[in-house]
From TrEMBL:
Membrane topology recorded in Swiss-Prot or TrEMBL: Multi-pass membrane protein
Record-given protein name: Glutamine ABC transporter substrate-binding protein
UniProt organism field: Loigolactobacillus backii
NCBIfam families: HEQRo_perm_3TM (TIGR01726)
Highest taxon listed in the record's lineage: Bacteria
Pfam families, sorted: BPD_transp_1 (PF00528), SBP_bac_3 (PF00497)
Membrane spanning residue stretches: 287-309, 321-342, 453-471
PROSITE patterns per record: ABC_TM1 (PS50928), PROKAR_LIPOPROTEIN (PS51257)
Keyword match Oxidoreductase: no
Taxon lineage: Bacteria, Bacillati, Bacillota, Bacilli, Lactobacillales
GO CC list: ATP-binding cassette (ABC) transporter complex
Length: 481
């Protein structure tokens, strides 16, 4: 029995090691700088209708790379994930409409400023709010980590309003348009771009003293890249290419195109047709993550679950500790710890995909171990006693007598855990994995039709889960027949 447990453990470790090895191998072979960027910050960072990542930041870093003779690998993971990845040495730099502040200078080295933006307040169309004084006693929506959030928090006592913060710009806008919040603070070009694209809000204040955007690297790291960025930026401003990039998204011709495209009346079927490839790609990534994770989680769960019932106290204790830690830790915290914390401790990079697989394996494996242990304990203890009295060793008695009966008890829990794993993949969007939920966020950042897009995503999840439920009932009937 112990030999089998050791063998299963070796297989699990080998699988996880292969993921890490091939990820590290790929990264080592790349002769590029890995740059993190946002995905929901138009016109600086977003995805166009063809599924290409674009915006002022994207065009600028590509133009600088071409000018200075280096390559970039863009990682559109979202602002928070990008910043944390750079801090953990997972990425070389970040360009995501990041405002240069004294606090951030403690952790990052910034380039020369490449854009200046003032802060404005916007409210729902038809709102009676016209000034900061009208906010007294009301709630204001903000986006985490932005200068707009810092500005609003600095004046909220003076004007008597409260704040609530969101990770995504679209969530902030929806909170205002739905009436939950009275206003939102945002950089002027970002807010103006959204309104031109059909967002039902209006700007009611003039731009206040804002800040400058800069490209950032971890403090003391990648100074050669920072120098290349500054040199390239200077060249682009001199030859006029910088002005062309900005005008492409904020000039009069861009505004005309946006007004023409900003109908906001696309039906669900039309949205599905427009974003079919992105949605299918996100669904494929979700299913891929689920299947690999459930296989590894099952192996881990069986090992730890069997350890729980072995007649060796220290093995029981070890099993209980593993279950307690990974079942008790929130999945979001575990994902961030593995993707951000572990590289900080070890100095080795872990790809977002590998970090996601490890996260799901540990979390779902702990839950699997609990019901494996419970299924074995649910078998009448007399079965083991009878098997041992016939001369069967513990391992053979467990394998031939107890487990066949326990598996029938565990099957519903196994299938239920498979469905839970499928849904839990959505949490991995926080580390930038482009699964179905993250795909939805990217689409919304472009068309600002959050309700319709989330309806499509919800229907896709429900369809897949319904099919899995039918399959689970079929398997359960076959086993119990």
């Amino acid at each position: 029995m112990r030999k089998r447990l050791l063998w299963l453990g070796t297989v699990l470790l080998a699988c996880l090691s292969l993921f890490t090895f091939f990820s590290t191998k790929t990264q080592a072979a790349e002769k590029t700088y890995t740059i993190g960027t946002d995905i929901t910050y138009a016109p600086f960072d977003f995805q166009d209708s063809n599924g290409h990542y674009t915006g002022i930041d994207i065009d600028l870093i590509k133009a600088i790379a071409k000018e200075e003779g280096f390559k970039v690998k863009l990682k559109p993971v979202g602002f928070n994930a990008a910043v944390q990845a750079v801090e953990a040495n997972q990425m070389d730099g970040v360009i995501a409409g990041m405002t240069i502040t004294n606090a951030r200078k403690q952790q990052f080295d910034f380039s020369d400023p490449y854009y200046y933006a003032g802060e404005v307040m916007a409210v729902k169309q038809g709102s009676s709010i016209k000034s900061l004084e009208d906010l007294r006693g009301k709630k204001v929506a903000l986006k985490v980590g932005t200068l707009g959030a810092s500005y609003a928090n600095s004046i909220k006592k003076k004007y008597g309003f409260t704040t609530t913060e969101f990770d995504q710009s679209n969530d902030m806008y929806n909170d205002v348009t739905s009436g939950n919040s009275a206003a939102a603070f945002e950089d002027y070009p970002v807010m103006a771009y959204g309104i031109r694209n059909g967002m039902k809000m209006k700007i009611v204040t003039k731009p206040k003293a804002g800040g400058s955007y800069g490209f950032a690297v971890k403090k003391g790291e990648n100074q050669e890249l920072l120098t290349k960025f500054n040199t390239g930026l200077s060249h682009l401003k001199k030859n006029g290419q910088y002005d062309k990039i900005v005008a492409k998204y904020l000039g009069k011709s861009a505004q005309a195109k946006e007004k023409k495209a900003a109908t906001g009346n696309d039906g669900l079927l039309s949205l599905v047709k427009q974003n079919k490839s992105s949605l299918l790609s996100g669904l494929g990534q979700t299913l891929y993550l689920t299947f690999i994770s459930i296989i590894l989680a099952t192996i881990l769960g069986v090992i730890v679950g069997l350890m729980q019932v072995m007649p060796v106290k220290w093995v029981n204790w070890l099993s209980s500790i593993i279950i307690y830690i990974f079942r008790g830790m929130p999945l979001l915290v575990l994902a961030l710890f593995i993707y951000i914390g572990v590289p900080n401790l070890t100095g080795s990079k872990i790809s977002a995909f590998v970090a996601g697989i490890i996260t799901l394996t540990l979390n779902e494996g702990a839950y699997t171990a609990a019901f494996v242990s419970g299924g074995i304990k649910a078998v009448d203890p007399g079965q083991m006693e009878a098997a041992r009295s016939l001369g069967l060793p513990y391992g053979k008695a467990m394998r031939r007598v107890i487990l066949p009966q326990g598996v029938k008890i565990m099957v519903p829990s196994f299938i239920n855990q498979f469905i839970i794993t499928l849904k839990d993949t959505s949490i991995l969007s926080v580390i930038g994995i482009l699964e179905l939920t993250q795909t939805g966020k990217i689409i919304i950042a472009r068309n600002l039709q959050g309700f319709k897009v989330w309806t499509i995503i919800a229907i896709m999840y429900i369809v897949i889960i319904t099919l899995l439920t039918w399959l689970s009932k079929f398997v359960e009937r076959r086993i119990n027949d």
